[in-house]
């Protein structure tokens, strides 16, 4: 499974591609940051994020895109920018028919470090260890993007089984009502 992880942001949008399957060593195929100038007009910044993500999709051809789910913060302006960058990533994937999964920051931290309250340094250290890198990816947005991809690879099999079970249950319930 090849996953593009996206840590959304308008100034720095972390991107990272990881390949592998749960239970086996994972491989980093690329990591970086799509940057836009903080003083540019919002539309131009969103276009820059789109162009950067499109380049990553072209180059790495992921099977899935994992995006950090936007959560409420006290700074509404920061939340808005993050949500807008997140929407751009989802749009780019949807345009290509690539499934998108959203993971909360605590889900990602728990999957990668074992604790949903881990700090950025702990996440970076575990990403470095899990992908057998010589140093943590910088900036932290890049490490977070890799953590998102790792989280999705590890969680996807269980999520797929849950979705199949729900679909089967729903089909049986619907069939029972018709009889």
Write structural notes for this entry:
This protein has 179 residues and is of the alpha/beta class. It is built from five helices and five strands; from the N terminus they run βββαβαβααα. The protein has helices at 42-60, 76-95, 105-113, 120-130, 140-178; strands spanning 2-7, 12-19, 27-35, 64-68, 100-103. The chain has a five-stranded mixed sheet. Strand 4, helix 2 and strand 5 (100-103) form a beta-alpha-beta unit.
Please indicate the percent range of residues in DSSP E strands (runs of 2 or more).
15-25%
Biggest sheet, strands in spatial order?
3-2-1-4-5
Could you spell the SSE succession in H and E letters? EEEHEHEHHH
Shape descriptor: globular
Could you state the oligomeric state of the chains shown?
single chain
Mean pLDDT: 92
Helix vs. strand class: alpha/beta
How big is the Rg?
A: 17 Å
Low-confidence stretches: none
Cα distance, first to last residue?
41 Å
How is the secondary structure organized here?
Layout: E1 2-7, E2 12-19, E3 27-35, H1 42-60, E4 64-68, H2 76-95, E5 100-103, H3 105-113, H4 120-130, H5 140-178
Parallel strand pairs: 1-4, 4-5
Antiparallel strand pairs: 1-2, 2-3
Helix pairs in contact: 1-2, 3-5, 4-5
């Amino acid at each position: 499974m090849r996953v593009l992880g996206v840590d959304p942001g308008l100034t720095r949008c972390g991107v990272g591609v990881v390949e592998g399957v749960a239970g086996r060593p994972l491989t980093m195929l690329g990591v970086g940051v799509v940057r836009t100038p903080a003083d540019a007009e919002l539309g131009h910044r969103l276009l820059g994020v789109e162009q950067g993500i499109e380049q990553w999709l072209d180059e790495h051809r992921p099977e899935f895109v994992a995006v950090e789910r936007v959560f409420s913060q006290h700074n509404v302006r920061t939340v808005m920018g993050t949500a807008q960058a997140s929407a751009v990533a989802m749009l780019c994937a949807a345009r290509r028919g690539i499934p998108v999964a959203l993971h909360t920051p605590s889900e990602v931290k728990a999957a990668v470090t074992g604790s949903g309250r881990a700090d950025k340094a702990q996440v970076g250290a575990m990403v470095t260890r899990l992908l057998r890198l010589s140093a943590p990816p910088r900036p932290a947005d890049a490490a977070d993007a890799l953590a998102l991809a790792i989280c999705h690879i590890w969680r996807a099999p269980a999520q797929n089984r849950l979705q199949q079970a729900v679909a089967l249950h729903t089909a049986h319930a619907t069939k029972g009502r018709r009889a």
